[in-house]
Design a protein that fits this description.
Radius of gyration: 21 Å
Low-confidence stretches: 9-16
CATH topology of the largest domain: Spore Coat Polysaccharide Biosynthesis Protein SpsA, Chain A
CATH class of the largest domain: Alpha Beta
Mean pLDDT: 87
Helix content: 40-55%
CATH architecture of the largest domain: Alpha-Beta Complex
Number of strands: 10
CATH superfamily of the largest domain: Spore Coat Polysaccharide Biosynthesis Protein SpsA, Chain A
Shape: globular
Largest sheet: 10 strands, mixed
Distance between the termini: 26 Å
Strand content: 15-25%
Number of helices: 15
Order of helices and strands: EHEHEHEEHEEEHEHHEHHHHHHHH
Length: 375
């Protein structure tokens, strides 16, 4: 494959400006001018047959427009869509979808970035498996200092690259979940359009519910290699949702309604019960991670509707020096059983294998990505 986003500084003609691209990247932006250079250059360097990058600026008040103008002078495939005022992330995604022309789509974030090979592997896999609704891969989680703090998914649906059929999806989902992280998902546009793209009423769950619906209906292709980076920040909408017990309950309710109304009949009840437990576990884990002092165990107890005895036990465990959070996490794991014991053992083993065999390679790739951060 040739490079899908030609640099205007390189010799020779690039792809035709108005030719239909194979892949459309929708990248909403609001006041992330600091990160745009890194995100766009990581996308532009991907080797795909042809690509357009739709930068949707949602009324930014920082230097984003200046940064985008400079990037557009550098790369032919960039198209700017500008909102005069801030309308929100969902409106920015809608604008990008309306303007997109590609057969495949990636919904990127200005502060995240992709690693070499994501889009080319995504395009190749979706062409080789026309029944697959989307492609996805492993994602590294980084804090703002650039430190790797984890990987997603914790346990993959398969340990080698390949197609996961709807039947295999139904089997795997009993033991593990959360395989689809937005920064690595390359969609087949036609199947995404079948379900109406993303339901904004689902809030932070809109992309997660879309991928699950598509996986149950069509299956997907999974690549067990880190090909994208998700920057973890407690100020984002999804993090703020997880830190609010009231908002967490609201999101859980709309998620359960979505499963009951739109998922295949044979999985609605069983997956609804699993989703309830796993969602509560993930929200409680986030509160333990981001909240401090007595606020963390208090929020966990409120989320889980703990009785007086359980509340006192969780607060007591949280006060144990050095191990408090670990003890509380173990307690809620036993209570909610989000994953099977076999899955937990496999996740521990896989994390240690990644650390030993791949972390040094990943660090080099991340260092190269951060080198263009301020460009």
């Amino acid at each position: 494959m040739q490079e899908g986003c030609s640099s205007k500084t390189l010799a020779g003609p690039g792809p035709a400006k108005h030719a239909q691209p194979a892949l459309s990247v929708v990248l909403p932006n609001y006041n992330h001018g600091k990160w745009l250079g890194r995100a766009v250059r990581a996308l532009a360097s991907q080797a795909v047959s042809s690509m357009e990058i739709l930068l949707v600026d949602d009324g930014s008040t920082d230097n984003s427009i200046e940064v985008i103008a400079n990037l557009a002078r550098e790369y032919e495939c960039i198209r700017l869509i500008r909102h005069e005022r801030n309308e929100g992330a969902h409106a920015a995604v809608r604008s990008g979808i309306a303007a997109a022309r590609g057969e495949f789509m990636l919904f990127a974030a200005a502060d995240d970035f992709v690693l070499p090979g994501l889009l080319s592997r995504g395009e190749s896999a979706l062409r080789a498996y026309p029944q697959a609704a989307f492609f996805c891969a492993d994602v590294a989680l980084l804090d703002r200092a650039g430190h790797v703090v984890g990987y997603r998914p914790v346990v993959p649906p398969r340990f080698d690259g390949g197609y996961v059929s709807p039947a295999a999806m139904r089997k795997c989902i009993r033991y593990t979940d959360n395989w689809f992280v937005g920064s690595s998902v390359v969609y087949r546009r036609s199947t995404l359009a079948e379900i109406g793209y993303f339901d904004e009423s689902l809030g932070t769950l809109c992309d997660g519910m879309a991928t699950r619906q598509l996986a149950f209906r069509h299956g997907f292709y999974f690549e067990p290699e880190v090909l994208a980076v998700w920057m973890i920040d407690p100020t984002t909408l999804s993090s703020q949702t997880s830190l609010s017990a009231t908002e967490s309950r609201r999101v859980l309710d709309v998620g359960l309604r979505c499963i009951a109304d739109r998922f295949p009949e044979d999985v609605r009840d069983s997956y609804g019960a699993l989703f309830r437990r796993r969602f509560a576990f993930n929200m409680a884990r986030q509160q333990l991670l981001w909240l401090h002092g007595d606020a963390a165990p208090t929020a966990v107890c409120e989320l889980l509707n703990c009785g007086p005895f359980e509340r006192s036990m969780i607060h007591a465990m949280h006060r144990v020096p050095g191990f408090g959070r670990t003890l509380v996490l173990a307690a809620i794991t036993l209570r909610l059983r989000p994953l099977s014991l076999r899955t937990l053992v496999r996740s521990w083993w896989r994390l240690h294998v990644l650390e030993r065999k791949e972390r040094s390679v990943l660090k080099r790739r991340l260092k190269q990505a951060f080198a263009v951060e301020g460009a």
